[in-house]
Structures are given as structure tokens and as C-alpha cells.
């Protein structure tokens, strides 16, 4: 078999993985882990070629992986920490695989992916909105707070009159859509949508009027669905993506953009149930009194753990083990000081990997972003990267590293897959070092 055919096979697998990524994440962790295992095996088989095709800054990521794996032996729960740390290699190989073998600049690949992704994301939006109206989604999954096995729309008029007397009988709180008991539908839509935003920005001028309206409608439906999901961090991120895209597309009419944007927000809040209104009002309450909020409590706990374990941290997944041991200085606070993780990206890295792990990770992200920016500047020397279409693929990872914004744990299959996949897409637009080994 020729080297060209071998490369083609890996490129084809990278394309298939890219096309199916939102479906794999929708089905569940098992499917994405199987896909990542296949990619890991392919990378190991071609390790020599791949190692010669990478920039030196990938060594920092290798050192980070070795470091967190070794430090797990000093954790209170060695097995859990080692298993999680060692398994992170699947995300790093996915990042490298996408960088080397996915050509996101290829318009044919973009068009195929946009078709598959649009279908899946629209289905999730439809299912979530149906759950919002009905109390149950099309698979029968209940919205949080809905206690009936029958759709609200199908309950008889007589029963409705009886149930209305009970204040919480027909209410729905947070929505899960097709994710069952997992309240992650807003995060799913937010973290899968950046590619669609990128695709629209990259191809908008070549779209027909119908196609322009179709994709703007898709983005609007995604924004609306994330809003009703009640996931506040996800809504802030999707709002940022939406605003950035509209400014890029219609920058000559900025006043009109902001006017339309404000009208959209007013429209969303106008038809929002009381539960969602309360959720979003809490954003301002948390911002005004962060230290006493639930997230502030977790942040303070992780800072205390970091102070006591400054150099090496407590090991991956160690926050849950160490947090109950710290001295709670706010015992009268209604919010618990501990959870499974700090819900804060930088503080999770600091408390669990120490200053060494935190610096290694920051250096890697710094050099990765530097490479993406440098490659962009080489192609478009008179353009600013901060205003480029490419930066939209980095928004989700960079939001994870925002200190005060609540986030899930980077070291889970769910969050880790989205984080490293987004970085992989961004790198796939960069220049590759092509070395053919005979």
C-alpha cells in the first residue's frame, strides 16, 4: 500500500469522525470513547510518522500528561486519579489527529459537515422545545420538575382544572431534551455550534438568499433553545458567538445589529417562564456577591486546597477527596463548600495539578494559540486574528479558562471531548509539517 493511500485512509477517518462528532456526543460517552480509542490506535500504529510531523510545543502536552499521570500516585484515591489522568491521552491524540488529517479549509468537507450537523442540532432543538411545551420530550424523558407521564397538551380539561389548583403541578424547570436525566442540552448546543458559526462566516458571501436565511434561522433557534434550557454559562457563550457573528456579517450597520440584538433578548425574556427568569436574574446576584455564592464557595475551597498543595496539587479528581478536609471559614453559608470539582477551569487545574501542572497547561495553550495566529498572519498578513473567522473555534476553550465563569470538569469525557475537539478544529486550519517516511 502506498504512502498516499495510507494518508488518504486516515484523512477519510478524520472526516467521518468530524461529520459524526455531534451524533457521537448525543448518543453518549460510550460512543465517543470508542471513536477516540480507534483514533488512539491509529496514532500508535503511525507514531513515528506522526511524531516527525508535529511542532515542538506538543512536547509540553506530552510532559503535562506524564506529569498528571505520575502525580496520581500521590492522590488519596490512586485508582480514580490514575485512571482519569492516563485516559486523557485519548483527547490529546484526537487533537493531533484532527490537526494532521482534517482539512477544514476544504469547502466540500465544510458543506457535508454543515448538512449533518444542522440536522442533528435542529433535531435537538426541536426535541427540547417539545419538552418545554409538553413536559416530556419525544422519547418520554421528563423535564426537571415535571411529575406526570402524560404530555401537558394531552391532559384532559377536567384534570387540568384540578391540577391548576396545585402550584407546581404543571411546571417544568430545567430542560434535558434527548439527554434524559442529564441537564446538559444547553451545553451540548453551545459547544457543538461554533463550527456552524464558522461555516456561515467563511461562506456567507457565496450563499444564496435562501441559504443565508436558513442558516441565520438555525443560529436563532439554537440561541432560543439554549436560553430556555436555563444553562446560564452556555447562554453567555452562545450569546458571544451570536454577537460576534452578526458584527462580522453586518459590521457596516452596527447600530441596527445592536438594536436587533436587544429586541431578540427582549423577545426571549418576554416569553420566558418564571423559572428561567429567576435563573438569569441570579447571574447578576452571583456577580454582585460572588464570594458568598455557590460558585464562590467552591472557588474559595479550591484556593485553600491550592495553597496547601501549591507545587503538585492533589491529583486529578482529588478535589472531591481533599475538600471535606479543609477548614470551612464560612460554616454559616447556606451553600456547600464542596462538590465533585470546583466548577472553575483555572482553579480546577491549580488545585488538582499544582503550579507545575497549571504552568505546563497554560504554556501549551499559549503556544497553540500562537501557532494558530502565526499561520493565519502568514496567509493574511494585513489582517488581525482577533477579528478573523478562525477565532470563533477558540471561543469555547477560552471560555473554559475564564476564571469566574462556572464550567464543568475538563477531565470528564463530556467536557474533555468538546474542549480538545474545538482546539483540534482550530489547529486543522493551520499549516502542517509534511514529512514522508519511506
Distance between the termini: 12 Å
What is the helix content? 55-70%
Overall pLDDT score: 85
Instruction: Give the beta-strand count.
Output: 0
Report the principal-axis shape. Answer: globular
The percentage of residues in β strands lies in under 5%
* Low-pLDDT stretches: 1-8
The multimeric state of the shown protein is single chain
Q: Give the structural class.
A: mainly alpha
Write the element-wise H/E pattern from the N-terminal end onward. Answer: HHHHHHHHHHHHHHHHHHH
Radius of gyration of CA atoms, rounded to a whole number: 23 Å
Number of domains: 1
Instruction: Specify the number of helices.
Output: 19
Largest sheet: none
Describe the protein in words.
The chain is globular and about 55 Å long. With 438 residues, it is mainly α. It contains 19 helices and no strands. The longest helix is centred in the C-terminal third of the chain and has 35 residues.
Properties at a glance:
disordered N terminus; globular; 438 residues; mainly alpha
Q: Could you give a quick summary of the protein structure above?
A:
The protein has 438 residues and is mainly α.
Layout of helices and strands, plus pairs?
Blueprint: H1 3-27, H2 29-45, H3 47-52, H4 58-71, H5 78-87, H6 89-101, H7 107-134, H8 157-164, H9 185-192, H10 194-203, H11 209-229, H12 232-249, H13 254-270, H14 274-288, H15 294-308, H16 319-322, H17 345-379, H18 395-400, H19 413-428
Amino acid at each position: 500500500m502506498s504512502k498516499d493511500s495510507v494518508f488518504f485512509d486516515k484523512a477519510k477517518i478524520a472526516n467521518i469522525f468530524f461529520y459524526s462528532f455531534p451524533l457521537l456526543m448525543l448518543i453518549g460517552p460510550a460512543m465517543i470513547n470508542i471513536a477516540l480509542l480507534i483514533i488512539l490506535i491509529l496514532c500508535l500504529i503511525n507514531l513515528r510518522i506522526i511524531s516527525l510531523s508535529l511542532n515542538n510545543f506538543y512536547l509540553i502536552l506530552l510532559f503535562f500528561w506524564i506529569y498528571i499521570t505520575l502525580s496520581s500516585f500521590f492522590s488519596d484515591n490512586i485508582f480514580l486519579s490514575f485512571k482519569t489522568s492516563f485516559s486523557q491521552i485519548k483527547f490529546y491524540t484526537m487533537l493531533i489527529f484532527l490537526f494532521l488529517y482534517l482539512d477544514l479549509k476544504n469547502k466540500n468537507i465544510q458543506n457535508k459537515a454543515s448538512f449533518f450537523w444542522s440536522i442533528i442540532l435542529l433535531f435537538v432543538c426541536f426535541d427540547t422545545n417539545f419538552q418545554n411545551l409538553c413536559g416530556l420530550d419525544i422519547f418520554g424523558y421528563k423535564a426537571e420538575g415535571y411529575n406526570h407521564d402524560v404530555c401537558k397538551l394531552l391532559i384532559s380539561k377536567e384534570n387540568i382544572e384540578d391540577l391548576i389548583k396545585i402550584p407546581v403541578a404543571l411546571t417544568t424547570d430545567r430542560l434535558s431534551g434527548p439527554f434524559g436525566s442529564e441537564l446538559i442540552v444547553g451545553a451540548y448546543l453551545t459547544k457543538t455550534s461554533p463550527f456552524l458559526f464558522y461555516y456561515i462566516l467563511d461562506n456567507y458571501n457565496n450563499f444564496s438568499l435562501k441559504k443565508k436565511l436558513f442558516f441565520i434561522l438555525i443560529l436563532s433557534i439554537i440561541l432560543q433553545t439554549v436560553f430556555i434550557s436555563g444553562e446560564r454559562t452556555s447562554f453567555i457563550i452562545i450569546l458571544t458567538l451570536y454577537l460576534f457573528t452578526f458584527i462580522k456579517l453586518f459590521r457596516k450597520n452596527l447600530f441596527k445589529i445592536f438594536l436587533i440584538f436587544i429586541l431578540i433578548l427582549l423577545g426571549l425574556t418576554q416569553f420566558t417562564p418564571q423559572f428561567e427568569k429567576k435563573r438569569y436574574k441570579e447571574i447578576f446576584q452571583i456577580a454582585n456577591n460572588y464570594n458568598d455564592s455557590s460558585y464562590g464557595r467552591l472557588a474559595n475551597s479550591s484556593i485553600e486546597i491550592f495553597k496547601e498543595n501549591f507545587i503538585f496539587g492533589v491529583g486529578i479528581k482529588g478535589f472531591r477527596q481533599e475538600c471535606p478536609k479543609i477548614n470551612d471559614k464560612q460554616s454559616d453559608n447556606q451553600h456547600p463548600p464542596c462538590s465533585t470539582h470546583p466548577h472553575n477551569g483555572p482553579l480546577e487545574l491549580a488545585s488538582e495539578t499544582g503550579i507545575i501542572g497549571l504552568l505546563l497547561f497554560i504554556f501549551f495553550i499559549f503556544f497553540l494559540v500562537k501557532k494558530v495566529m502565526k499561520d493565519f498572519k502568514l496567509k493574511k498578513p494585513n489582517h488581525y486574528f482577533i477579528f478573523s473567522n478562525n477565532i470563533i473555534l477558540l471561543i469555547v476553550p477560552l471560555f473554559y479558562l475564564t476564571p469566574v465563569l462556572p464550567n464543568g470538569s475538563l477531565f470528564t469525557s463530556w467536557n474533555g471531548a468538546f474542549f480538545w475537539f474545538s482546539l483540534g478544529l482550530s489547529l486543522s486550519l493551520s499549516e502542517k509539517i509534511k514529512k514522508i517516511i519511506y
